[in-house]
Amino acid sequence: MATHNTKTLARLMMAPSVLLLLVWMIVPLAMTLWFSFQNYNLLSPANVNFAGFLNYEFFYTDPAFFQSIWNTLVIVCGVLFITVVGGIAIALLLDQPIFGQGIVRILVISPFFVMPPVAALIWKNMIMHPGYGVFADIANLLGQQPIDWFAQYPLFSIVIIVAWQWLPFATLILLTALQSLDGEQKEAAEMDGANFFNRFIYLVLPHLARAVTVVILIQTIFLLGVYAEILVTTNGGPGYASTNLAFLIYRTALLGYDVGGASAGGIIAVVLANIIAIFLMRAVGRNLD
Amino acid sequence: MGSITLRQVSKVFGEAKVIPSIDLEINDGEFVVFVGPSGCGKSTLLRLIAGLEDVSGGQILIDGKDVTQAAPAQRGLAMVFQSYALYPHMSVRKNIAFPLKMAKMDQAAIDRKVEAAAKVLNLTDYLERRPSQLSGGQRQRVAIGRAIVREPSAFLFDEPLSNLDAALRGTMRLEISDLHHQLKTTMIYVTHDQVEAMTMADKIVVLNRGNIEQVGSPLELYKTPRNLFVAGFIGSPRMNFIDGAYAQSKNAKTAGIRPEHLLLSRDNGTWRGTVKVAEHLGADTFLHLDVDGIGQVTARCDGEFRAHHGDVVYLTPDESKLHRFDDKGMALQA
Questions:
Q1: What span, in angstroms and rounded, lies between the C-alpha atoms of A186 and A192?
Q2: A57 close contact with B: CB closer than 8 A
Q3: Which of A11, A51, A157, B4 could staple A149 via S-S, CB 3.0–4.6 A?
Q4: Do B102 and A193 touch (CB under 8 A)?
């Protein structure tokens, strides 16, 4: 009886927050869904009428649509690859006892504290700029023609910037996982004749599987919606070369004033994110059991 | 083959001299137990032999070959860790096969050896399970299996039974002793439990603060402890130490008498004591007594001897079993 009462009470007490969260999620989703079937352009806000699937058709037939989906996937996969591989490498280095360990760790983690537009601007103007960027200086020093990163490799440049920002996050999570590896297991493997490479493959990597899963899941959520870095660097260009789905929706809504079309894009993005989530949970989710 | 020789081996951690200097000879096929209180350096000594720690000075020889600078895997030793240190994501089969796989043995030979080891250790039915699906005793056996398949020149055990409950500890103790008789390989076993040391060892090495206090067979240590430390550490309940007039009458600074060498009587004896606590264990009864002019004394007697708090009993020490120690705590010969 007592447990029953507590359960009912617990549910009652939780109800307001659950309700609030539900409303917070359902209302914007419902509104977006509603707008996506409306002819709603901010240039003529008086003429709002039912559009059927016209918005979806327009968004789908937009020449930028497939490219933006492809770019979204490239950004997500590229950044994930760099951060997971780089994160493991840096975490392995930071796990070694070194002089000034605390300060080094804080320095490594600091990029995460820099706001995305600020970080992107620093990369744009101080590092990748073809005239006075650090990369250009290095190229000049080696007698090479400096690369105009955002013109020649716009998408790759975005991937580098975003990866730089997320690398500390991956490193941090992987480092804590690495530190939780049982010391006696390492010693046992050492006695069993496993060299560093074998210990990494058979002991460290399986131990890190769970942390890598967490990194992939969390980063994917945020990487699907990369926006600020694109806005302040390439502005989606040249052409649509660095436009991802989030940026395309922004373009449609705030540059094209087409609320209906942008809403349709938003719904497509939600569906796409869910498809990716299902595949992701299938592929890596079992590591979390 | 597996004879191990330590020559003036020392270990320093920063300022702390954990092991000042140790000389020790371990013969092939011996079951040697390092025993001592926690912090006495017994685990460190084992890790030095294993190669998991670098020596600060001295030499370690295995079968006459200097291995002081050799990597752990090259010393031909196998170790069983306190936490078992099984690889959690591998099945029992893969755990046991791991050292063979690292030695690049071919798969058929690996399978054969793993099956054989599993049979010896009663693990055949569990080969496909993960360590997390096994009980403590089974995990322990997997850890031993992983050591056996390498056919090492010596096994190193680092407090392997301390994570098991009392009943299982007794069984595993027998199994390890049995294994030693089967394999006839040198085994070095570290424990803080003197019962394990007494029951399993051919040779006990008693360590205290990084120094060897005494080396000998269990009965040697029991009968002729070299000093107060060994006398107090070996034997349970521990030896009674008596200072003062009684010791002086025996020409010693301290006299020692084991609880089992005190004869108890209801009506007459050398000493008169009052029972403080009586521990009835069934087969034995331990009496903690307050003896007039002597102090606190523990006596061990037959389980039938009924006594309660406050009872007065008489004790007679068996003087042929008396141990005498000088003012430096060293044993005096009779």
A1: 10
A2: no
A3: A157
A4: yes
Output the domain CATH number for residue B141: 3.40.50.300
Cβ contact, residue pair B77, A191, below 8 Å: yes
The DSSP result for A231-266, as a single string, is HHHTTT-STTTT--HHHHHHIIIIIS-BHHHHHHHH
Tell me whether residues A191 and B89 touch, CB distance under 8 A. no
- Considering only CB atoms, which chain A residues are within 8 Å of B72? 187, 190-191
Residue A68 predicted with pLDDT over 60: yes
Q: Is B21 on the interface with A (CB under 8 A)?
A: no
For residue A196, the chain B residues in CB contact (below 8 A) are: none
- Using the predicted structure, report yes or no on whether residue A79 has a pLDDT greater than 90: yes
Q: Is residue B19 within 8 Å of residue B45, measured between CB atoms?
A: yes
Instruction: Determine, for residues B98 and A207 on separate chains, whether the beta-carbon distance falls below 8 Å.
Output: no
| Full strand arrangement of the beta sheet holding B65-66 | B16-26, B4-13, B57-62, B65-66
pLDDT for residue A24: 92
Whether B54 maps to a domain, the answer reads: yes
Find residues 28-67 of chain B whose CB sits inside 8 Å of chain A.
Answer: 50-52
Residue B257 sits in the same domain as residue B178: no
Whether B192 contacts chain A with CB within 8 A: no
> Using the beta-carbon criterion (under 8 Å), do A190 and B103 form an inter-chain contact?
no
Look at residue B122 in the predicted model and tell me its pLDDT: 84
Residues of chain B with Cβ-Cβ distance to A198 below 8 Å are: 102
Residues B268 and B151 in one domain: no
Q: What is the C-alpha to C-alpha distance for residues A112 and A95, in angstroms, rounded to an integer?
A: 19
Is residue B275 within 8 Å of B310, Cβ to Cβ?
yes
Separation in Å, CA of A202 to nearest CA in chain B: 9
Domains of chain A: which residue ranges? 1-35, 64-288
Predicted local distance difference test score (pLDDT) of residue A193: 83
- Among A184, A192, A213, most B C-beta atoms within 10 A, so best to mutate, is A192
Query: How high is the mean pLDDT of chain B?
Result: 88
- Do B171 and B255 share a domain, yes or no? no
Confidence (pLDDT) at A1: 57
Say how many domains are in chain B: 2
pTM of the model: 0.78
Q: Which of B196, B231, B266 is the last residue of a domain?
A: B231
Give the separation between CA A74 and CA A78, rounded to whole angstroms: 6
Contact B102 A203 (CB under 8 A): no
Q: Say what the ipTM of the complex is.
A: 0.79
pLDDT value, residue A2: 66
> A194 CB near a chain B CB, below 8 Å?
yes
Q: Domain A64-288 in CATH: superfamily?
A: MetI-like (1.10.3720.10)
Among the listed residues B306, B307, B312, the one whose alpha carbon sits nearest the alpha carbon of residue B290: B312
Strand partners, B208: B211
**The one-letter amino acid at B65:** K
